[in-house]
């Protein structure tokens, strides 16, 4: 958590943290990140934890769904779909199980908010899981986490154990509202494709993580072919404060269509990279200022608003409000708010090459456009980076990327094509220079390093 967020957390209203004096930061999920043993149930309770669940147990499932709808909470996994509306898509109860699955398979380059949330404040997620389970009539919830982050997995398991032993999950769940809640933390084997909700469900069922054909959607036939809600970590962790403080409290933040607050992960060439929890509608210029500005002696070249899969922005978009509608109107996507900042020392060809290598490696191979297209894009990008590009390579890249976008089985193809297409659009001369000059000669790699020599 940034120093500014810590300072903002000191401003407490009667129901918890409020705006800073300027209204810039809204520490809620990050409020206790700097507290001693912030991950423990004792610390979480001392800061108002599990008040939301206590209130939820006095409300009916229908009231909880309506409350979340009224708050305007939207999915934090990238798509921004209204959360309460998603919950309401479940069919009427039929006496058989229904499930909640939390997507904690955070792995896109630049995206780094959900894993820190589980590490620093896992009980916000556990409480959110409990409230959501009550709202949808579920008595068995799953958290699908990347197996590589073993320390985070252990912390999540400990939080689930604490919540279970405390009695918070003993009753109030299931279709009849009097069942205990079981939370299973599942460690995946590590595949970016499992961040796609249906591939995640296949993996959770013990099969290879491949996206499913939709319809049917998970709300109708999800985990074990039963009605299932799949939500992101930050989405679910945001629910307790909404239930505790009310829909109007949450809806008072943000913009007209993008309500509330979110974690903005600022990384790259800024003085103080970190997590900045702020209302939607804050601008990148404000976030860079909160981050201490571009590193001394340098200036901004380009940035991405939602991780490597979103179209590239430049300095001219610094004042675009960071909400779903404004960013889309400016030609990009807010995504997971993974704001990567690159200064003038960086080769756009080098950056896009690294991203392309990632997507080619992570393609599941189920569909031809993504399987073949990412392979050939990687070959061409590596040639251009090395200064060995062939005549027509840039045009060929555009053609291949255009034949991947919108033609893949899932969104991974679009994610792979986007940085290539927008990179060429904004830095075509750099790509064309790759036919004669290596990227490391045009932009010496040591100049862009942020590691300090010892």
Automatic annotation (TrEMBL):
Keywords: 4Fe-4S, Flavoprotein, FMN, Iron, Iron-sulfur, Metal-binding, NAD, Oxidoreductase, Quinone, Translocase. It catalyses: a quinone + NADH + 5 H(+)(in) = a quinol + NAD(+) + 4 H(+)(out). Gene3D superfamilies: 3.10.20.600, 6.10.250.1450, NADH-ubiquinone oxidoreductase 51kDa subunit, NADH-ubiquinone oxidoreductase 51kDa subunit, iron-sulphur binding domain. GO terms for molecular function: 4 iron, 4 sulfur cluster binding; FMN binding; metal ion binding; NAD binding; NADH dehydrogenase (ubiquinone) activity; oxidoreductase activity; quinone binding. It comes from the Bacteria. Residues 349-394 form the NADH-ubiquinone oxidoreductase 51kDa subunit iron-sulphur binding domain. PROSITE patterns: COMPLEX1_51K_1, COMPLEX1_51K_2. SUPFAM superfamilies: Nqo1 FMN-binding domain-like (SSF142019), Nqo1 middle domain-like (SSF142984), Nqo1C-terminal domain-like (SSF140490). InterPro entries: NADH-UbQ_OxRdtase_51kDa_CS, NADH-UbQ_OxRdtase_suF, Nuo51_FMN-bd, Nuo51_FMN-bd_sf, Nuop51_4Fe4S-bd, Nuop51_4Fe4S-bd_sf, Soluble_ligand-bd. Its cofactor is FMN; [4Fe-4S] cluster. Signal peptide: none annotated. Residues 1-24 are annotated as: Disordered. Its EC number is 7.1.1.-. It holds the Pfam family SLBB. Belongs to the complex I 51 kDa subunit family. NDH-1 shuttles electrons from NADH, via FMN and iron-sulfur (Fe-S) centers, to quinones in the respiratory chain. NCBIfam families: nuoF_fam, PRK13596.1. PANTHER family: NADH-QUINONE OXIDOREDUCTASE SUBUNIT F. This is NADH-quinone oxidoreductase subunit F. The lineage of its organism: Bacteria, Bacillati, Actinomycetota, Actinomycetes, Actinomycetales. The gene is nqo1.
